[in-house]
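Design a sequence for this backbone.
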């Protein structure tokens, strides 16, 4: 059986449990965006992600691509219970009234065969327009179409993905050692990317290209993922927002009831700890 078929993958998932061990002290938002979960890979921080999903409530939840890593699953099947728990929690949110919109990315491009359909109530799209509470219109897109490597030389993207997975494996062992020493989570791969000038130039070029396209479409801003770099800033009058990822930075984008946007850094929070005031990387 091929692992890149969405219905076949859904058949592998156990039915969602009815009991829901949610923590006290919910964080209420109008809208939440998350992307680049990479379920199906050892690098996915599923435990932290599940804590986030249990803690944060919203009217609409956007899954902005690379939710399930079809590239990795084709190479080697990896699907522990923690990843199943995340999917079950997403389905449970739908049943409780949250609108969940899945915008496909390059790692889960198999979902693009099912645009306009829904699975367990989760809507599948290639892109989407979000209307903020303050009237702004945001373009929701994963962002891989603005990555020249993927568009021109996909084999090179797969090679880079293999190297990236090796770096994440090293990062896992490093953070296991840090946890035993009582030290907080720290991303080696994120640190290395931010130290390489070429990587920084790539991020800036990507952000500006996406913002230009949002402007060309007559929109007020864009929310994307893909590059695993959370950001919220103004680019020539266009709101550029990237919700980050759940393998390195553990970040999400949220909209408050008044339309204000905020990047949440979940790496600064501890499961079981009292929920502090929001800890944004930036606001707009």
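Sequence:
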């Amino acid at each position: 059986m091929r692992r890149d078929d969405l219905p076949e993958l859904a058949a592998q998932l156990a039915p969602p449990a009815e009991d829901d061990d949610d923590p006290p002290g919910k964080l209420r938002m109008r809208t939440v965006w998350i992307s680049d979960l990479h379920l199906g890979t050892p690098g996915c921080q599923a435990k932290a992600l599940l804590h986030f999903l249990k803690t944060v409530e919203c009217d609409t939840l956007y899954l902005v691509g690379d939710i399930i890593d079809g590239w990795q699953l084709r190479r080697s099947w990896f699907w522990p219970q923690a990843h199943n728990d995340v999917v079950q929690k997403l389905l449970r949110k739908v049943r409780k009234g949250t609108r969940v919109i899945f915008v496909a990315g390059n790692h889960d491009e198999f979902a693009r065969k099912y645009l306009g359909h829904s699975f367990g109530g989760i809507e599948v799209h290639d892109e989407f327009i979000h209307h903020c509470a303050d009237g702004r219109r945001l373009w929701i897109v994963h962002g891989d179409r603005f990555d020249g490597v993927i568009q021109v030389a996909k084999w090179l993207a797969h090679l880079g993905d293999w190297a990236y997975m090796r770096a994440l494996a090293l990062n896992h062992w490093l953070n296991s050692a840090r946890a035993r020493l009582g030290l907080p989570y720290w991303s080696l791969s994120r640190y290395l990317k931010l130290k390489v000038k070429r990587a920084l130039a790539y991020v800036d070029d990507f952000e500006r290209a996406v913002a230009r396209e949002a402007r060309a479409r007559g929109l007020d801003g864009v929310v994307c993922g893909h590059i695993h770099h959370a950001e919220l800033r103004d680019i020539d009058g266009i709101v550029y927002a990237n919700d980050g990822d759940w393998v390195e930075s553990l970040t999400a984008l949220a909209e408050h009831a008044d339309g204000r946007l905020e990047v949440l850094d979940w790496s600064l929070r501890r499961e079981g700890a009292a929920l502090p005031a929001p800890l944004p990387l930036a606001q707009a």
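The first helix runs from residue 6 to 12.
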